[in-house]
Design goal:
CATH class of the largest domain: Alpha Beta
Number of strands: 8
Pfam families: Abhydrolase_1 (PF00561)
GO molecular function: monoacylglycerol lipase activity
Number of helices: 14
Largest sheet: 8 strands, mixed
Mean pLDDT: 81
Low-confidence stretches: 23-32, 218-224, 325-330
Strand order of the largest sheet: 1-2-4-3-5-6-7-8
Keywords: Membrane, Transmembrane, Transmembrane helix
Shape: globular
Number of domains: 2
Order of helices and strands: HHEEEHEHEHEHHHHHHEHEHH
Radius of gyration: 22 Å
GO biological process, one term: acylglycerol catabolic process
Protein name: AB hydrolase-1 domain-containing protein
Structural class: alpha/beta
Distance between the termini: 75 Å
């Protein structure tokens, strides 16, 4: 009888030991979803071997994550999109060989990089800041492969045009901005409505509620609330950047700089992109002979999230880096 009680007590203790962390996780998930999202990013950076570092230049601080060291092969610099951060690349970095030197930087004013009221957040202004970052960490000691998505793709294109000797190849993933392409998207129509309303309507790329975030990511409600909580303190800043990158100064920045790009160029685009129409890929290819275009079926604007493995393989293939496999080349 005593032995039976010991067994029961053992099960109760074991069950209680397991229940406490599970209960703590559930409570944290319900009460502090944004904290769990940050923990998730921290876990994946650690798992993938990425280290967070800072680079200071004249009172301006850049935050970036990196893996590996510069070597015989070109380094890879990755520029994220509007209102995102360096951890947006984690899904792609997962499929990149560990021996490659990879740098993912927080764009000007985003996440851990310095934010100032006097900063020029136009596409050209951001390109100049990224060049400052590249010089600060010595990444331009030899040409590197530059990758950018959405806003980061726009900045990457302008960067490659302004500093041609620093890039050995470029990958633009659904670069934003207007390319004078023939077809408009729902986002283009919304931009027109914004202009007509004198920017009093909600900006679709700056969600302030889980419902608006659902339009972008279609995730479960608590994760959505966590994403909203993470972005909430930065809403005013994102509105400022949005006005800059879609204003007259930046609107056609990529189009105006295309003819100055000399390094081999790759364009990756989701065929179902509802933010920037896929016909933009044709515009770029017609402007630059030899441009490689990879169009992804059943994929929208968030290529990095929707097709991370395929994106990594296409980047490696285009840059002719070890680990590449032949991708769909159109």
């Amino acid at each position: 009888m005593a032995a039976d009680l010991d067994v029961v007590n053992l099960f109760i203790i074991a069950g209680g030991t397991l229940a406490i962390p599970i209960l703590a996780f559930i409570v944290s998930f319900l009460l502090w979803p944004s904290a769990l999202i940050k923990l998730y990013y921290w876990y994946w950076r650690r798992t993938l071997g990425l280290q967070v570092r800072y680079a200071d230049c004249g009172g301006y601080r850049f935050c970036y994550s990196c893996r590996g060291k510069p070597g015989m092969r070109p380094s890879i610099l990755m520029l994220h999109g509007f209102s995102a951060h360096k951890d947006s690349w984690l899904t792609v970095v997962k499929y990149l060989p560990r021996h490659l030197h990879i740098v993912c930087v927080d764009m000007p004013g985003h996440e851990g990089t310095t934010r100032t009221d006097t900063e020029d957040y136009s596409i050209q202004g951001q390109a100049r800041r990224i060049h400052q970052f590249v010089e600060t960490i010595g990444l331009n000691r030899k040409p590197f492969h530059l990758v950018g998505t959405s806003m980061g793709g726009n900045v990457a294109g302008v960067y490659a045009a302004c500093y041609p000797s620093e890039t050995c190849s470029i990958t633009l993933i659904c670069p934003d901005g207007q390319l004078l392409h023939p077809r408009e998207t729902k986002f283009d129509n919304h931009l027109q409505d914004l202009e007509h309303s004198n920017y009093t309507l909600n900006i679709p790329l700056i969600p302030t509620t889980p419902e608006e975030m659902e339009d972008m990511f279609r995730l479960c409600s608590h994760i959505l609330q966590g994403l909203v909580d993470v972005q909430q303190p930065h809403i005013t800043f994102y509105q400022e950047v949005f006005m800059e990158i879609f204003g007259e100064k930046s609107r056609y920045a990529l189009q105006e700089h295309l003819h100055l790009i000399t390094a081999p160029l790759q364009v990756i685009w989701g065929k179902q992109d509802q933010v920037v129409d896929v016909s933009g890929a044709t515009v770029i290819a017609e402007e630059l002979s030899g441009c490689r275009v990879d169009l992804l079926d059943n994929c929208g604007h968030s290529v990095v999230m929707e097709r991370p493995c395929q994106t990594a393989k296409l980047i490696l293939d285009s840059a002719q880096l070890p680990g590449a496999t032949s991708g769909k080349h159109q």
